[in-house]
Amino acid sequence: MQSLKILVIGGGIGGLTAAIALRHKGFAVEVIERDPSWSVYGVGIIQQANVLRAMKALGLLDDYLGAGVGFDAVEIFRPDGVKVARVPAPRLLDGYPANVGIGRRALHKVLGDRTIAEGAEVRLGITAETIVDDGEQVAVTFSDGSSGIYDVVIGADGVYSHTRETLFPDAERPAFTGQAVWRYNFPRFADLDALQVYNGPTGVGFVPISEDLMYMYVTTPEPDNPRYPREGLAATMRGKLATCAPAIQALTEQITDDDAVVYRPLEGMLMEGPWHRGRVVLLGDAVHATTPHLGQGAGMAIEDSLVLAEELARADTAEDAFTAYRARRFDRCAYIVRQSLAICHGQLGKGPPVDNAKATAEMFAVTAQPI
Ligand SMILES: Cc1cc2nc3c(=O)[nH]c(=O)nc-3n(C[C@H](O)[C@H](O)[C@H](O)COP(=O)(O)OP(=O)(O)OC[C@H]3O[C@@H](n4cnc5c(N)ncnc54)[C@H](O)[C@@H]3O)c2cc1C
Fold first, then answer.
1. What is the DSSP track for 40-83?
2. What is the structure's pLDDT at 250?
3. What is the average per-residue pLDDT within 9-13?
């Protein structure tokens, strides 16, 4: 198809990479983002070689690497701090690292700047109020009173997607796992040249995200899904680390700023049925939200973007494009969601324990496959 006018709902990682990929195919693109300040919280994200490959395909590789930091291994530790494995991460691009750690704000700036530079229109502080698909086009009214007519609408509005709820009121919903994650930034360990993962009922990881910064994540069982007040959050996070390995405990006194603690109950969701209805299609967390145990959620959203743009450019109808898109994406995304959940359940004693080193090596092999 040519000359499509496309609305992307959601200016996050999936929506912005979709906008860039669609502009490369020559489509007219508008992005609407609910958050008027287009903000992102301040910790980081882990990405693997398949994401570097996707960033290259988006023409973003150098900007992306310039904003993050590369590393080539995952180190696994026992709860008492003894290192049990260093799993080399396979590179997919010659001369580039296997993994990248990057601050979420740094990534957001790279994607946002490029989206605008490629000529997509970005409108902030806006949501879609009504979406009416007559089979030929989609009429959308917006929360600011404006309206538009589009050939295709993409719902990239995240795990609590309003687009999904409107289109598929009976679809799967995000389900709380019983586990939550705490994150906090620190000065980077001088010798940190890998993602470090400490196993145990309280799991801990250290992720480099720049030359001088790393973040710590801490996964804890939270069966009752408590709502912790912001005041005192740093002390609560310190308390969660009281029985961890000495190397971790040594850091805890630096956790002092309640506002810098990022706490998040972990949820997962996979739409088993169709990912589109008529001319409206879903992408990223809106259709397959994963817990972060394999660090691949954003990677899947970015790959979705490339595949959807390719299929829209290649197909004769939106229906064909969306069907081909889901066929290319479902197994891979389902693997990430299900395997991440299996690791989570293993950690919580809700399922058999999963060998982290083995699961990581397998994930590298699966995601190395072409998209
Ligand atoms: C604790 C945690 C750690 C993670 N760590 C990693 C990691 O290390 N590596 C990795 O690859 N992935 C990780 N992920 C997953 C990753 O964050 C997501 O998969 C990724 O952000 C999905 O991108 P998205 O664009 O689909 O959704 P989002 O990033 O959630 O973006 C959705 C956007 O839509 C906007 N929006 C929402 N509703 C509307 C609306 N009605 N109208 C307009 N705009 C709207 C939102 O404001 C937001 O900007 C992690 C996730 C969690 C929860």
1. --SSEEEE-HHHHHHHHHTT-HHHHHHHEEEE-EEEEE-TTS-E
2. 87
3. 98
